[in-house]
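Protein folds are increasingly written down as discrete tokens. With that in mind, we are printing a sequence and the tokens encoding its fold.
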Amino acid sequence: MKKFDIEPWLASHSVRCQNSGDELVFEHINGESSVLLPRTHWRDGILPIGTEPLTSFYQSYFGASLGNSHLTFATNIAGGVDISHGFRLHDFDQMAAQARELGIQIPVGEVAFLAEAAWMFIYTISASDSKLVLKKYDRDFGTARTIEGLDEVLESWWGILIADQLS
């Protein structure tokens, strides 16, 4: 699975980008915003993640919220972190616990790192037989399927954003 480079993707899909405190805020064509938490300074209590492409992502960022929190990446800061979108990003353990509370059973060995559409979908990553596996869990249907990459998730979200803009 290739490295996930979210900042250039967001910049190319935004009308404006600005630093706001500890956040990098991207404004999209429909007025929604996305927030990246760049790793510009040291923080205590950082949770390790040893699975690429997440390792690279969390070496550069503490977490993210895209499209007014339509997509929320877990934070690698133990205990979570508050962001300007008005809520708290969960850490990996909190995200898995929330998924279980909602009826999504995350198997041992999978790391829950992304929630979509108010926790309707949860994404996990794991290594199986030296191969990385990215899964999308559907809360309503109780299903899981393997997906190719995080680009698929972003492009799907972008399609929704554009469709809403056109209607």
User: Anything to note?
Assistant: The first strand starts at residue 16 and ends at 20. The first helix runs from residue 6 to 12. Residues 6-166 form one domain.
